[in-house]
Amino acid sequence: MSGVRRALLVVGDVVTDVVARHRTPLAPATDTAAEIRTLPGGAGANAACWAVRSGGGEVRLLGRVGTDAADWHERALRAAGVRPLLVRDAGAATATVIALVDASAERTFLTDGGAALRLSPADWSPGLLDGVARLHLSGYLFFAGPSREAARRALRDAGRTGVPVSVDPASAGFLRALGTDGFLTAVAGAEVLLPNADEARALTGHAEPDRAAAELSRRFPLVVVTLGAAGALVAEDGAVIARVVAPPVRPVDSTGAGDAFTGAFLAARLAGADPVKAAEAGCRAGAEAVTVVGGRPPVPPVDGS
Fold first, then answer.
1. How much is the pTM?
2. Of the residues 25, 69, 113, 283, which has the fewest C-beta atoms closer than 10 A?
3. According to DSSP H, which parts of the chain are helical?
4. By C-alpha distance, which of 95, 106, 5, 92 is closest to 44?
C-alpha cells in the first residue's frame, strides 16, 4: 500500500429513501395522510456523510447503483463532501427503501435491495485501500451472495495490509433470516462491531444489551452497542467498560440515527479518540440525526433524480 493512510473507505449501500411521516396510525385498505419526501440514503452512504460532517477528513464510498438514479446520488454524495466510487448497474434499479415514520419518530422499513446487493467481487480491488486508514463495511452487504463475497474480500485484503475494519450488522430481521452463525463467520476478522440493541440480541440470544455486548466483545476486539435515546455501551475483552449517555432531544425521524453514530464514531477514531470518546461523538451525531428528516446531515438541496 502506497502513500500516507488518512482516509476512511466505506463499502456499502446507496439507497433512494422514500420517507413517509404519518401522525396517525396506518389505516388498512384506505388512505392515511402523510408527509412524503424522496431523499438520498443507505446505511453505508449515510455513515459516510456523517463521517464528513463530524470532521472525518477524506471519506470515500464504494457502492453499486442503478443507472436510473446514479447521477443524482453522485451529486448528493459530492455535496456532502464524500468522494463517490459508484459502480453503475444497467441491470437493476437503485436500492429503494420506504420508511414509514410514526408520530413517535419510530420507523418501519420496506426494503428493495436492488443494485446495492449486486456489488460483486469484480467491483473490489485491493488498490482501493491505498491511503485508507480505516475500512467500514455496511452489514447489508452480507445478506446477499455476491455482495457478501465482495465484503469478505475487502475484509481479507484490509487484514493483510493492517487496515482496521468495522462492521455494522444493519438489520435484526435480516440477521435472523441469514442466521447469526453465518453472519458472525462472514465478519470474522473485523476489529469493531457496531450493532444496535436489537441486533446485539439477535446475534447472542441475550435480552439484556449489557450481556450481549460483553459476549460479542469476546469475538471482536471492540464492540459498541447503540441504545437509541439511552446512549451506547462500549465493551472490550468480555466486559462492558463504559455506558455513554446521549444528549436529550425532541425526535422528528429516527431514520439514519445509527448511521450517524457510526460515521461520527469512525471520524473520531480516525482523529485519535479512544473508544469511549468516539462513542460520545457518535451519540451527539445520533441525537442530531433524529431532529431532521431522512438519514443524512443537512446539505444544500440537490436537483431531483
1. 0.92
2. 25
3. 43-53, 70-79, 145-161, 172-178, 180-186, 197-204, 209-216, 257-270, 275-289
4. 95
